[in-house]
Amino acid sequence: MADAVLLDRLSRHRALGAAPESERAWLADHGVMERLAVGDVHIAKGEQAAALHIVLTGHLVIRADRGAGARKIFEWRGGDVGGILPYSRGASPPNDIVAEEPTEVLAIARERLPELTRACPEVTATLVHMMLDRARQFTSGDLRDEKLVSLGRLAAGLAHELNNPASAAVRGARMMVETQAAAEAAARRMGGARLSDEQLAAIDALHERCRARGAPGPRSALEQADREDAIGAWLSAHGSSDSLAAPLAETAISLEDLDTLTAAVQGDALDAALQWIAAGCAIRSLASEIETSASRIADLVNAVKGFTFMDQAPTAGRVDIRRGLSDTFTMLAAKTRAKSATVSIQCVPDLPPAHGVGAELNQVWMNLVDNALDAIGEGGRVEVTAGAERGRVIVRVIDDGPGIPAAIRDKIFEPFFTTKDVGQGTGLGLDIVRRLLRQHDGEIEVTSRPGHTEFRVSLPISS
After folding, report:
1. CB neighbours of 194 closer than 8 A, spacing ≥ 6?
2. Do the beta carbons of residue 299 and residue 363 sit within 8 Å?
């Protein structure tokens, strides 16, 4: 005979209270009451639930560290149902399920579930709907969290990539203002020297030769130091300030060019002319650096737009795989440099477009390439190839890391499984990859041995 108090509590249960009284009585007759204190582990990480758990009161929580400290990823309160449900596979929790309040649970043993489905059809239908809702909740939550983690990685990499050209542009603009002031001061000195037309022509000729030759090729530190010493010695010998040695050494002016100038200009006028020439060439060089930095920033912004498809609706269509892979490597350039890695992309010239949602496929490439960079050692290699086989686009991501041990190879696509240190990975990347590819009628396979791990992605070609 069912306990009257328990029957009353089941009648007020949010999920099961609407079930027929006979079915609630069956639950009460076949269930075992479990009570947990705060901090008690209800189901340990990696263990399968041994029963259906009808939560009457309290609060059960799974927390996991997905890279930003432990946070709640799922919870059950009074009125919820947890544990193993009818027709479910009974997956293990990704972390301990812990009571955060005094909790009471009515447990229906796993062995009773076949009998429950026969004796309690309405309860069974309710539990099946709950199982589907729970799967959707896990799926949407995992996808959202992985997108946030990917966004964090992308933002960190982008900030690092933008910092260098932005800092260079700011530094160049500041130096240009200072150099322009020096050029104006030198021009005033030249004006006061009352130079002849022949002298001005000689100065202009050297200035034009410097501009026409452009910036010198790269020199070693020793070569640059030797050049500064030689120009400094020449300046001292001709009564000019050796402070000009460094800026003049940055130009393509030779000692022979300086000798030609001295044939027309000497003394203070020579120093003023050299000041003006050095400043003019420096301004031109700084303008070129600022232009290069701004172009780099524009390229990065375009790569982000291409990677995220921010100006396109998230609908399936023709996707340029080559562009997606290129943008992915741009986003991960900072990580690539940090590992001194060698990366390459090889796409067949006539690579056909794939059919899918571009932003979602780019998330696939981001996760696979990011994992490959994590796997390799310092100075390692990551190679990506793309081609077409039997009417499908085939993308391979290959790294020369230590490989995936055979013992865990079948687990790498499971949610929350990770070989990375706590806080370094969510264990969701490859699970998300597989889910996204399934939505695109795609497939993923992996082969691995020491020195060669290959993920092979197959996608339908866009018609």
Report:
1. none
2. no
- At 60-98, the pLDDT tens digits run 998 876 555 566 777 889 988 888 887 666 667 778 889
Express each pLDDT in 161-189 by its tens digit: 677 778 878 888 888 888 888 888 888 88
Same domain, 185 and 245: yes
Is 354 in contact with 319 (CB distance < 8 Å)? yes
Residue 402 lies in a domain: yes
Burial class (CB in 10 A: 0-12, 13-18, 19+), 425: buried
Interatomic CA distance for residues 92 and 128, integer angstroms: 18
Residue 332's domain is classified under what CATH number?
3.30.565.10
Q: Cα(243)–Cα(228) distance, rounded to whole angstroms?
A: 10
My answer on whether 292 and 337 are in the same domain is no
Q: Which one, of 133, 5, 129, lies nearest residue 57 by Cα?
A: 5
Beta strand residue intervals within 390-425, DSSP E: 392-399
Domain limits at 358? 309-460
User: From CA 40, how far away is CA 348, in angstroms rounded?
Assistant: 58
Give the up-direction half-sphere exposure of residue 353: CA atoms within 13 A in the CB hemisphere.
Answer: 12
Indicate the DSSP class of residue 313: -
Angle between helices 358-375 and 321-331 in degrees, nearest 10: 50
Say yes or no: 364 and 420 in one domain.
yes
Please tell me the total count of domains within the chain: 3
Q: Is the pTM of this model over 0.70?
A: no
d(CA 131, CA 342): 46
Secondary structure of 250-290 as H, E, C letters: CCCCCHHHHHHHHCCCCHHHHHHHHHHHHHHHHHHHHHHHH
E strand or H helix at 170, and its extent?
helix 121-192
Q: Would you call 107 helix, strand, or coil by DSSP?
A: strand
Q: Nearest 5°: phi and psi at 39?
A: 95, -10
